[in-house]
Amino acid sequence: MSLNFSKLGLRQKESDIARLMTVALQRPDLLSLAAGFTDNQTLPLAELTAMAVELEKEGDRSVLQYGANQGNPRLRQLMSERLQRQDSAMETYTVDRSFVTNGSQQALYLAVQSLCDAGDIVLVEQPTYFVFLEMLRGLGVEAISMPTTSSGEIDTDGLERLLDEFSSSGDIDRLKAVYMISYYANPSGRSVSRASKSAVLGLLQRYDGRIALLEDAAYRELYYSEPHDSESAIALLDECGAVPVLYSTTLTKPFATGLKVGFGYCTHDDWLARMMAIKGQQDFGTANYNQALLAKSLETGLFDRHLAVLRSSYQGKMQALSSRLETSLVDMGWSWSRPDGGLYLWLTAPEGVQTGFDSAFHESAIEAGVMYVPGELCHAEGKPRNRVRLSFGVLGTSELREAACRFCAAAQRFTPTRIS
Amino acid sequence: MSLNFSKLGLRQKESDIARLMTVALQRPDLLSLAAGFTDNQTLPLAELTAMAVELEKEGDRSVLQYGANQGNPRLRQLMSERLQRQDSAMETYTVDRSFVTNGSQQALYLAVQSLCDAGDIVLVEQPTYFVFLEMLRGLGVEAISMPTTSSGEIDTDGLERLLDEFSSSGDIDRLKAVYMISYYANPSGRSVSRASKSAVLGLLQRYDGRIALLEDAAYRELYYSEPHDSESAIALLDECGAVPVLYSTTLTKPFATGLKVGFGYCTHDDWLARMMAIKGQQDFGTANYNQALLAKSLETGLFDRHLAVLRSSYQGKMQALSSRLETSLVDMGWSWSRPDGGLYLWLTAPEGVQTGFDSAFHESAIEAGVMYVPGELCHAEGKPRNRVRLSFGVLGTSELREAACRFCAAAQRFTPTRIS
User: Fold this and answer.
1) Minimal CB count within 10 Å: which of A267, A337, A348, B400?
2) What is the residue extent of each domain of chain A?
3) pLDDT tens digit sequence for A327-356
4) Does position B78 have pLDDT exceeding 80, yes or no?
5) A59 touches chain B (CB under 8 A)
């Protein structure tokens, strides 16, 4: 049989995640520091069931009916108000500009589908979310890294030069968006400072709204102690002018991932309408029941109570993993920073140690019984090759310590013997 | 602001459904025979909540965890076995070829995305599902109607001639798939006979597997008395050779639409892999909790008990609507057949009565307080213009009678006075 696939179809290949999952299935003895899942222990099964029972008591069967393509109005209102509070914004965030998606992933997909043809360009951070890079590859869109300072911030002077080069070469017409993970990023754990976000918006506004900003705030609520001290790009638009912004986040990563509900807010009405038209064709609306469960969880305070539990849990797990790694890896020449939120440690191995899927180091880690995400997957250009993403999302504290031991054992084999 | 949209983005416009919904919101006094929703009264809120409580008792929190991109293995197994039973098939239906989607809509979208570039062709029935036509327009794909016999079957001799013409003209290279709604179709209420399905497969197999069959079986389980007497195209492949088939259906239309879970089965492994890669980029898996609820509903028999309720309910509502219409419309020259399943009556108005959104008849119906779907939306070529889709899904029996009265009153104004 010889189906002739579309150009899009032809571009599809097994994803890096699928490859990781295949390894995980073949080797159930492995401890996974790879998956960016949340942990089963903290999933609020009893609490969510109580919400389901509450919905039944209220007796509104329409929660099991089809909903609107753009999402449940009550949930959109609650989330728009929540975003406005987080941004300490004076102006009202318009419910009309908000929408609900199948996880935040779909919002990003709709954004790229509506903006980019194959051959177009999206600028990304280095490192960036590797599933987003896969999506761009799948859609035939070129990802190019923005310049970065030695401290890991976006180098706005360098970005300005890059944009100028694009203008000179004509590539600027292919540049459709900048993708920025602005809070406790996957994988770096970093947040974008207010100054940096403002500077990027300031650069983009020179292009008359032709270049959009995709702000991915999936981990914004998963801070450990205090929220990161910067409002969203939406709140900065007043001073930064007319840049179309899509802000995307998820209601379920910081609650119950199995519900798969994302939330988006788009400042550009025509763009929003086009994304919603595509969503209408893809699924005609996210599962209405899940949205009702989440609206109820927000209204009753369950969502926030559970968030407090998660923040403390993830902070504890981050500390357990990092502490155990520090006892060995630092002396071996590895380095990383402890994040203030999120699910990831982003490690730099000593120069010369490569960590990719086909590397000796990766083989050694699998032999030692631990999985991680090779950092090169998180870079548009596939390098540097000596980075590692470790997630402390899935495993419990004692398993994390064991996984850290195994990781250190693997690292030990790649450490030059020191002669003292 | 002047975003430069992608070609896909530029093709998006307000959908016909959105237009219908806008009217519905502006005029809450209207009775809707338009929406293909199920009715709130029959939605199993208490029963589904019992499933949620059951899941809590079992205590497996992983139902709230991320699931696999291709879907929950247990649900896929249950549905593959169910499909095999429905097809009375001897050969085992492979779970590996099954997958779960966000409603059956997403399966169709993935199929078209992976097969068709803008400018390609998909053959459809006349009439066909109007949201599918919108999807094709959104993706830039040309829909062309297959020839139809006077009794409404696919005219396979005519189809053979059409395929021959495509071969002569070279258009055959753009023809990627045939879309067939084979059970109690939306909007015609018709089912495709075994002979007709076999004949279409027989024609397609001449093209060495280059033309796929998309079989949409969304309403298969919503028969009133007996299942339609034809197996799926999958079961017919043994005798009809190597045609790639995607069979799509929904678990939630015949149960609780607000859960939005579809099921697909694809006989072509490479095609399936490409669709799954795209799904991985769109959402990385349908909500896991919903899949657990549905697997539990299937296992406990709730799903089938509820189906029995729905079948009886929809049959009763079909009879109520059709009977009331028959008392007036037949004498006015309207015609239709009572379906054996599904949610729709498909009416033919007297010649010369146009029913489109901008027609005097449509205006008259809205004035009389009733909404319907203009039949021309359901035809790739936008005609005939004198058809009407009425859905008895949403309204209760007495409301249906009132809606029928209003519809008849509108029709009355477009009936030539007879001189006896």
Assistant:
1) A337
2) 11-42+305-412, 45-300
3) 999 999 999 999 999 999 999 999 999 999
4) yes
5) yes
Joined tokens for residue B101: 């989607």
Domain A45-300 = CATH 3.30.565.10: no
Q: How far apart are CA A198 and CA A239, in angstroms?
A: 8
**Measured distance CA(B98)–CA(A90) in Å, rounded:** 50
CATH number corresponding to B60-300:
3.40.640.10
In chain A, the percentage of residues whose pLDDT exceeds 70 is 98
Q: Is residue A212 less than 8 Å (CB to CB) from chain B? A: yes
**Cα dihedral B44, A261, A67, A287 in deg (nearest 10):** -40
Q: What is the pLDDT of residue A420?
A: 47
Homologous superfamily assigned to B13-42+304-412: Aspartate Aminotransferase, domain 1 (3.90.1150.10)
Q: Which residues does chain A have within 8 Å of residue B306's beta carbon, measured at their own beta carbons?
A: none
| Least CB–CB distance from A258: residue in B44, B212, B287 | B287
* Both structure tokens of B373: 């779907």
Q: What distance in Å separates the CA atoms of residue A406 and residue A34, rounded to the nearest whole number? A: 14
Say if A257 is an interface residue toward chain B (CB within 8 Å).
yes
Residue A37: what pLDDT?
81
- Between CA A143 and CA A156 the distance in angstroms is 18
- Which residues 135-164 in chain A show a CB within 8 A of chain B? 135, 138-139
A247: pLDDT confidence band, cut at 50, 70 and 90? very high
Q: Which residue has the tokens 């009202």?
A: A92
- What does the block give as tokens for A88? 């300490």
Average pLDDT, chain A: 94
Which residue intervals of A241-376 are DSSP H helices?
Answer: 269-282, 288-299, 302-329, 360-368
Q: Which of residues 278-307 of B touch A (CB under 8 A)?
A: 278, 280-290, 292
- Helix (H, G, I), strand (E, B), or coil: what is residue A414? coil
What integer pLDDT is reported at residue B356 of this predicted model? 96
- Spatial CB neighbours of A353, under 8 Å, sequence gap ≥ 6: A361, A386, A411, A414
Mean pLDDT on A159-178: 98
The fold of A11-42+305-412 is Aspartate Aminotransferase, domain 1 (3.90.1150)
Q: What is the mean pLDDT of residues B149-163?
A: 96
C-beta of residue B221 within 8 angstroms of C-beta of residue A30:
no
Q: Do A44 and B21 touch (CB under 8 A)?
A: no
**pLDDT (0 to 100) of residue A240:** 62
Q: Which residues contact A342 (CB under 8 A, 6 or more apart)?
A: A183, A184, A185, A186, A189, A219, A222, A314
With b meaning 16 or more CB within 10 Å and e meaning fewer, what string describes B35-67? bbbbbeebbbbebbbbbbebbbeeeebebbbbb
